[in-house]
Amino acid sequence: MLHTNVKINELGHLEFAGADVTVLAKKYGTPLMLLDSERVKSNVNVYVNGLKSAFTPTSFPCYASKALSIKEIYRIVKAQGAGIDVVSCGEIYTAKSVDFPMEKAFFHGNNKTDSDILYAIENGVGYFVVDNVEELNAIDSIANSKGIKQNVLIRITPGIDPHTNAKITTGQVDSKFGTPIETGQAFDITSKALALKNVCLKGFHCHVGSQCFDSTSFIDATKIMLTFIRDVKNLFGFDTEILNLGGGYGVRYVESDPEIDVLKNLEIVGKTFNDILKEYNLNVKTVILEPGRSIVANAGLTLYTAGSFKTIDGYKSYLSIDGGMTDNPRFALYGSDYTVINASKASLEKTVIATIAGRCCESGDVIQENVSIQQTSRGDIIAVLVTGAYNYSMASNYNKLCRPMMVAIENGIDKVIVKRETFEDLIKNEI
Ligand SMILES: Cc1ncc(COP(=O)(O)O)c(C=O)c1O
Known about the structure:
With about 425 residues, the chain is of the alpha/beta class. The protein has helices at about 20-30, 35-55, 70-80, 90-95, 115-120, 135-145, 185-195, 215-235, 260-280, 295, 330-335, 425, and strands at about 5-10, 15, 20, 30-35, 60-65, 85, 105, 125-130, 150-155, 180, 200-205, 240-245, 285-290, 300-310, 315-320, 340, 350-355, 365-375, 380-385, 405-410, 415-420. The strands form three sheets. Strands 4, 14, 15, 16, 17, 18, 19, 20 and 21 form a nine-stranded mixed β-sheet that branches. The chain has an eight-stranded parallel barrel with strand order 5-6-7-8-9-11-12-13, surrounded by five helices. The chain is globular and about 70 Å long. The relative contact order is 0.16. The chain binds pyridoxal-5'-phosphate.
């Protein structure tokens, strides 16, 4: 199977994290999102241990909350000693609600409003990742009004295109994120940060893109960023403490995606980092990576109930499910690949080609087009694999549909971690 936490049991049903998913679908109803807590822990630990050994002893990962921002994830990340990347006050609020140590939080975003900045400062966010000069000045002025000096990193665009999906690449010069090296503006913002009284510059950040299956773009980013850090030292006499290389390692959604050994890749990038550090005589103490997808994607799976199956003669077949773009908009947004299995009949050959259609009044509400699946009858449980990242966190209530429930499986025991939304929830803010 695609990942080691997915199996077929002796009843021919799909098993996830050791649990028969058809049993869970019956117990909790569908659509249902499952989370393999052990897998989240082990994924975080690959980065916790790998960064320390491949880079420097104080290096650590910051989980990119945007992939899945729920209390249970913050509890796990906190227990493993990692930090977090947050992009909104809502993510800060959620992390704080489980007493996440906010000094390990890095606040991102290309447009932090004044009230966002104030909220983050008042809630003890450790670091701001500054996008541009205007924002830098706003942070300085709000920090001044609160009588503090705020730690910051500056987000740099290194001018790299990792050649994945254009909508998930951010490292190229023409990007809404960050300040570019190529135009000279990265040096300008650095000198401004060093001159301000209420910000304390700790280092630099870059994020090249997502779904990277090797370390080419991380190696390129390391070279460019360390060269920039050396130039900054020569120009301003500033010693960079922290280099944050962003997120982006890929995840296997379908059999044709390559396997990736994150630990090995960290070692490769770590070697480049340490070689250049020596060559340039730099003293960067801490390297941070911000994995999101590679922490939670393969720890998630979504279950639906099959509805009607219809064939448009001479065209194609549609299998309708009781969820869709409201719980997983990634096919609609990016044309993302997914593996779909009839969990009730998982041991059968996949003999049918069908488009898996959601229930919204929207032709684009499709989870996967022309995918192979087992012969399916109304009421069968349909599993979509590898849905832990950017599914629930991108979910909506379009067509006034309730967001699904999420159930965690830990050591074979299932527990609800996010309740199913109710109709009352749907109208609670309406007057
Ligand atoms: C700044 C930043 N860091 C980290 C990530 C996480 O990327 P991934 O989920 O691909 O690891 C993203 C994703 O958009 C990002 O924009």
